[in-house]
Amino acid sequence: MVASTLTDVARLAGVSPATASRVLNGSARKPGQDIADRVRKAADSLGYIPNAQAQGLAKSSSGLIGLIVHDIADPYFAAIARGVQEAAREQGRMVLLATTAGAPADEKEAVAAFAARRADAIVIAGSRSVRPGDHDGNAELAAELDRYCRNGGQVAVVGHPVVGSSVCEGYHVLTVPNEELAANLASELAAAGDHQFVIIGGPAGLFTSDDRIRGFQSGLAAAGSPAAEVIRTDFNRSGGFDAGVTLAARIKAAQAPADTAPAQSSQGICIFAVNDVMAIGAAAALRSKGLRIPRDATIAGFDDIETLRDFRPALSTVHLPLEEIGRQATLRAAGTAQDDRPITGHVTLRRSTEATFHSGAAN
Amino acid sequence: MVASTLTDVARLAGVSPATASRVLNGSARKPGQDIADRVRKAADSLGYIPNAQAQGLAKSSSGLIGLIVHDIADPYFAAIARGVQEAAREQGRMVLLATTAGAPADEKEAVAAFAARRADAIVIAGSRSVRPGDHDGNAELAAELDRYCRNGGQVAVVGHPVVGSSVCEGYHVLTVPNEELAANLASELAAAGDHQFVIIGGPAGLFTSDDRIRGFQSGLAAAGSPAAEVIRTDFNRSGGFDAGVTLAARIKAAQAPADTAPAQSSQGICIFAVNDVMAIGAAAALRSKGLRIPRDATIAGFDDIETLRDFRPALSTVHLPLEEIGRQATLRAAGTAQDDRPITGHVTLRRSTEATFHSGAAN
DNA sequence: CCGAGCCGGGAAAGCGCATTCCCTTTGCCT
DNA sequence: AGGCAAAGGGAATGCGCTTTCCCGGCTCGG
Questions:
Q1: How many angstroms separate the Cα of A2 from the Cα of each of A5, A9, B113, B155, B347?
Q2: Kind of pairing, strands B317-319 and B346-348?
Q3: Contact at 8 Å (CB) between A93 and B98?
């Protein structure tokens, strides 16, 4: 027994396929009540399931939304994916997933695959990058995306437009105020105490990372603090860990000379990792070297990843409405783009940057 | 300019659509070199992208793999999803995502939607359940799945078969040794010290949770320990937190009478939460009540979620190769099911269940 | 009372592609 | 040199559905 078709249903109901089609989907023309009932009865006695491919072919639209992320297991992307999924579901669409590890060449392939499947919209969640090695890939990606748009596709990208893509209709950019928020974070941190700041950033050229670094520096400048040193590393937990190891050595070296007085340099070190996962990695590194947070160093991240909120000391960070970002991106690309309310976040200071040692475990 | 078709390419190349089709896909028949080149040149001068819907219609197979999870933002599912995605990618397929919060009715809809899209295979990752309220939904889900299978679909389910589904060809169950591993965990924990065990479990009827509870109890029994009390709560962080609050009160009450001697009851309390996320929630609750782990209570989880590994005190748990599970499920359903190597995990004891207070921060 | 208009139903033409079947051409063997 | 097999190219069919277009019967107005 192979899947039954609309024709089978029509035959069983004793009507034409055209009529059956009109009954079983929201057509403009409403067949008579009796006929409709007959068709519907036939349909579910046969267990009829419309062939979405055929429907798509006939209507040239698929009800599919393509989502491109670096890594679905990364909680940052997982959170965004949840928002996308949710919005898609509300619209009766399904989401098609592609992971690319951030490689523009792979992203280009993903876009092509989505285009092949006639996805109604594409949401690109991964950070853009301008690293030299990505140049060609970026160009191809931009071209592919352009073609997709020109053929009527909608695309929403989180953060920054794809490098080199022209702004055509159906191309939406969901701006995330990374720079501004990082500046706010720097201000609050600088106001809270006299620190020596160090930034753990991703590879140069990664927009999200660069924005946050730039914002942080400008926030520092505004507060009258000197610019922070920037350590470049991988944009993940392991990168954060490596940087943490380096910093740990430095901190210990700074503590050693005075020997008795831990607060040798009048300033404590304050680390800003450009995302929470890196911050956690760095914190783990410090701890593994016997250093304590916030006693020997303070640390802040960015994103406010939910799974990491139970981490102790609680991580100071910048809250980003990740799920909402995914949702908005989807709506903007594929939906009745209601109020295009901009994305906002907020600085969330917690224990990991508390200068003085409180006793409570709260927060 | 709308997407160009195979016919366009053929016309430009001066050949028939049949030939163009043969060139651009791996057909059995190989057109001549010169013609092939001409077609290929025409194809990419037009930026031709084959219409996967049409291809699917013609070949009746879509290159799609449906994945059903409870919540993609849950790190457990995210990890499995990564494995699925990876395996799918290797096979040149794409994954279609559906999240259902574990509701069988939603899962049934997801299966129907996958069937409509003619997905080649469906991977169901969420735990099965036999809660009374789910009864009808389960039946419908089983029916839908049966139909899908009979029409030639492949399905792989992680853990347990869907309740009520008959075993037809193309129906694969990836067994996870939850019970056995939970028993091992119980043995090791019981051997490590004389504890009073308490289990924080999910709602009764949730297979994964029930298996782990049953396994843990039998491990306890084998070690000669009395059965543990079971606290039922939600299968997520918040459920763990609530249970933790309850337990915290109890622990404090037990400590209070003796007043001076913290080790009043000769046995410390050892909590087993049926998954890591719940364990973290419970730990957070204890801590918020001023209790310390492992001093005032020890705790273990299950899954060994990667994102949670930097949590301190490091959580004792049972490692499960989540990514591999997703991968295997996919391969088994959609692939050249090579070696059907069973899934194995292992107990991983860390600081959170250390009876004695070591000084190092390692592990 | 008759024609204009409308409404509900059916026939048929694709949507873009794979594939079967047929025909021509080429190469090879006897 | 004649015959045949194999190979390579094309016309046509169909995958399952939507959607025009058409047609018969109905109602309503003049």
A1: 9, 13, 17, 17, 46
A2: antiparallel
A3: no
Nucleotides of C under 7 A from a protein CB: 8-12, 14-20
Span B288-321, pLDDT tens digits? 999 999 889 999 999 999 999 999 999 999 999 9
To 5 degrees, how large is the angle CA A327–CA A331–CA A334?
130
CA nearest B223: which of B262, B252, B255, B197? Answer: B197
- Write down the pLDDT at residue A339: 66
In which element (H, E) is residue A187 found?
A: helix A178-192
CA dist., res. B293 & res. B355, Å (int): 10
pLDDT tens digits for A232-253? 999 999 999 999 999 999 988 8
Nearest to B327 by CA among B67, B45, B135: B67
Tell me which amino acid residue B250 is.
Answer: R
Tell me whether strands A346-348 and A317-319 are parallel, antiparallel or unpaired. antiparallel
Taking 70 as the pLDDT cut, the residues of chain A under it are: 1, 256-266, 337-339, 355-363
Cα–Cα dist B47/B228, whole Å:
65
Q: Return residues with beta carbons within 7 A of strand C.
A: A 14-19, 29-32, 34-35, 54, 57-58, 60; B 2-3, 5-7, 17-18, 21-22, 24-25, 27, 48, 50-51, 54-55, 57-59
